[in-house]
Automatic annotation (TrEMBL):
<protein>
    <recommendedName>
        <fullName>C2H2-type domain-containing protein</fullName>
    </recommendedName>
</protein>
Length: 140
């Protein structure tokens, strides 16, 4: 069974792979820096409602905003270095560079999670490893 922290990491990794780094950065500003949803919305081209919605998803997965903050503090520097596996095409379509499929942007995360589960898993484990190392370095 996967832990709730792993669920959050996987959620963020899939967003990055899908090219939605603005959402991950918005969540970092919300949880780590305590920015208001309206400021974040303007900065990342989202609506206040979307910012609250994404934050709510994280809290539901991990249990509290405090836990989310603790995890994201370590996870964000690692996860934001992951390169996307999508290329924007015209309009609302993206190309998955892993398999060449061209898909509507609405379903790209689902596509990555299902068709490229192995890639997501590899990033998940390397992310967990790097987080463990940075925590170990801090406590030395
Ligand atoms: Zn693909």
């Amino acid at each position: 069974m996967r832990s709730s922290a792993e669920d959050v990491l996987e959620y963020l990794i899939v967003k990055i792979l899908a090219g939605k780094d603005n959402i991950v950065n918005a969540l970092a500003d919300y949880f780590i820096y305590g920015e208001s949803p309206s400021v974040i919305a303007l900065k990342y081209g989202l609506s206040k409602h979307q910012v609250r919605g994404y934050a709510q998803r994280i809290v539901e997965k991990i249990g509290s905003a405090t836990k989310a903050k603790a995890l994201l503090k370590y996870a964000i520097p690692v996860i934001t270095k992951i390169r996307p596996v999508t290329k924007k095409l015209n309009g609302s379509f993206v190309k998955c560079v892993l398999c060449g499929d061209e898909l509507p942007i609405q379903i790209i995360e689902d596509h990555i999670r299902k068709k490229h589960a192995v890639v997501v898993e590899e990033y998940l484990y390397s992310t967990i490893d790097l987080i463990r190392r940075s925590i170990a370095m801090e406590s030395n």
